[in-house]
Amino acid sequence: MVDDLRRRDVFKLAGGATSLALAGTAFTQRAAAQDVRTLTIAWDTDIDTLDPAAFKSIGAYVVQANVYDSPLMWKVQPEQGKPGLFRSRPGEFDPSAAQAWSFEKDGATVVLKIRDGLTLPSGKPVTAHTVKYAFDRGLQSPGYIRLLFPVLLGVTKPEQIVVRDDKTLAIEMPAPSPMALDVLALSNNAILDPDEVKAHASEKDPWATDWLKRNVAGVGPYRLVKNEPGVEVVLEAAKNYWRPQPFFQRLVFKFVPSEADRVLLLKRRAVDIVTGRPGLSPRNVKSLEGEAGLKIFSVPDTTCHWLSMNTKKAPFDNVKVRQAINYAIPINAIIPSVLFGYGTQMKSPVPSLTPGYDDKLSPYKHDIAKAKALMSEAGVGPLPITIELAVRVGWQPHEQAAVWIQRELEQIGFKVNIVKETDATFRQVASKGGHQLSIETWQSWINDPFYHLHFNFHSKSVTTNTAFYANPELDKLIEENMRSPHGSSRLAAARRAQQILIDDAVWGFLWYDSWTRVMRADLVGVEKRWDTFERYYGMKLA
Amino acid sequence: MALALYVLRRLMSVIPTLFGVTLISFFLTYMLPGNPAQVKAGPLATPEYLAEVERQMGLDQPMWVQYGRYVGGLFRGDLGESAATGRPVLQDFTQRLPATLELTLASLILAILIGVPLGVLSAVHRDTAIDHVGRIVGVAGVAMPTFWTGLLFIYVLFYLIGIAPAPLGRLASGLTPPTAITGLYVVDSLLTGNWRTLWSSLGQLALPAATLAFSVMAPVARMVRATMLEILQSDYITAAWAAGLPRRRVIYGDALRNALIPVVTTLGVVFGFLMAGNAVVETVFAWPGIGNYAVTALMTKDSGPIQSFVLFVAVMYVIVNLIVDLLYAVVDPRTRLS
Known about the structure:
B: mainly alpha, 2 domains, 15 helices
């Protein structure tokens, strides 16, 4: 009796399991039949707003860069030894919505010639007025573009953007800006349809910021057809676009919050490429090396990661202590053990790809004896000094590097407590000067030494100067060179600035990220620009 | 009539509970460190610009004004805006809540389907191999973290063997969701007779539901086992045996029916636990539910989604408890008398 019951149940269970397994085979059959003209991308970001003038999430920037054209574009060149990969070089630009550009008044005025035959999705032509609207909107609407134009270009009011005729637009700056063309390549200067935007404006919202959060109205290679947060974003090739049709007619961005899943999806070819920041941690990229059917593109990039020391707070107000820290950072262990080689040692406060960068100025290398000597010269004490090192939760390389740094700093007289904070907390504490030590990161989309120096080291850049560094000589150097023609004296000034910052050991130098993407092996036409966001327009299957 | 009055009285008692929940969810979020305006304004924001963003978000107001606005908004169905999606939180919830509900219900049903027979078998075959296996499986389910079980399922069934679909949410790529009636894809597909989406949504649901069910099956099985053991030794069962009633009828009819009373209570608790606790599983399976949404919001101190999540889970708890109490009245006639 008893046995009977048991056996029957076992059979039932076994039967159930078999039918589940059979069902499973059918579930997966669909996945294989994928259209070759569709590119499936895994990421872990939603779109917060597509308003071109607003600061936005990574996902929103990626979409913005693919649904809108800006007046100019950073030119890309084939990367040596990496067929299928293209990368921008400093100071090289391509025409885009503007088919040509020229300078007047020694570079103080930029003249844009708007592309002939360029039309909006509505069929109306794109004129100089259309492009002016994009700039006017950036200058006046909420968003951060109106903070950038005055600093970078000296453009503060719409009157400085002058329509000369239907196809000619002039940007009148008070002085030449070496960053002007870079600014014109930013995806934030999206060519919008003024009529469409105005149709969705209201008295309370004159720039239709609310409507533009989730709607796209302008010129670009793709159009947004679906945006379902937490599920997927779908872009389709735009009709009547001025360039030839792209290979990938459809881009499907799948929201995959778990990194382990992103790895398995790539390995099973359920997705073609993983994007986002970081998308995949260095450890996982390493694990995918040599995986059949996949390839890794990795090139040096301008993203800096550094140990930020609050120069206003003891003991980091002491230059000897800051120098000691720079000698104690075990960077030669962090690069292989934390970054698995997907990063390079930082040898200057400016990125290695930035004009004027000099890797010969920094004396710092891992040298505990020297660090200890500097600590005793500094005369701080009594040792050990207890300090907090703040990192952001979920920023894997930072969390891991913090442990390596902690161990070394404890050798030279510190007791280090690692504090993990959410993004919101980290930013708040940082801006109030509450961090003693923290791991910070920054990327300059405008690849110019003084752009970078201005935001990170000028005493007036209170929210971005994470070290709270103030040096009148450096401030003066930055101010003199923010808007001066790019030439040898400007490069010399950039070198002088690096020397000051290295001598003062303002940052604890960590690493420059490599821009790294893992994708199916036959994907080519991959383009990496200064803002790091892929343009899918040029991608195709080999 | 008496039942209607009972329900009404229970519903009235919900009001102060919900009021308390709004207070707690608001103040907990308020006390969280971090400034959401800073996340929204971006790294290049100047202090003046930051102040402007704070003003727009109403963060410059005193705490009690912010609370008043929050509660006032609740009455108008305005739960605020999500910083991550740029949409009203209510809209996000309308889209995501059915996903969470579907997953929770599926895992609960699965847990009952496996847990109850397992409990009965363990009790009937006390201290035999079946009982031991049941115990080991149960302990393993409780002991293994769900993200790990979930990943293990994905690794083995999707990656290695390839019988499970890609862990990419509720439907296979390229399928459009069935016409929304309940918002539960499986149910809606059945109602509209859309067999392709039914098949796909069942396939997508299988692994996450199994992962969650695995973690809560043990309490159900243990509870069934314990009460069954007690009941199997009671006089009326002995009498039933003595009367020569069929074994099946004694175990599944007389004994199990009475054993289910405490189990119903357990299920209420388990349901609440699943609702609030499946954030991890949602993340592992890219399941677009409210748990995953709330976790992301926590990182950026995005108050609208966090407060709404707490509120929704509390409301669900209240409703489930109400249902459990009502079920009690059905299962156990004694509660109706008192």
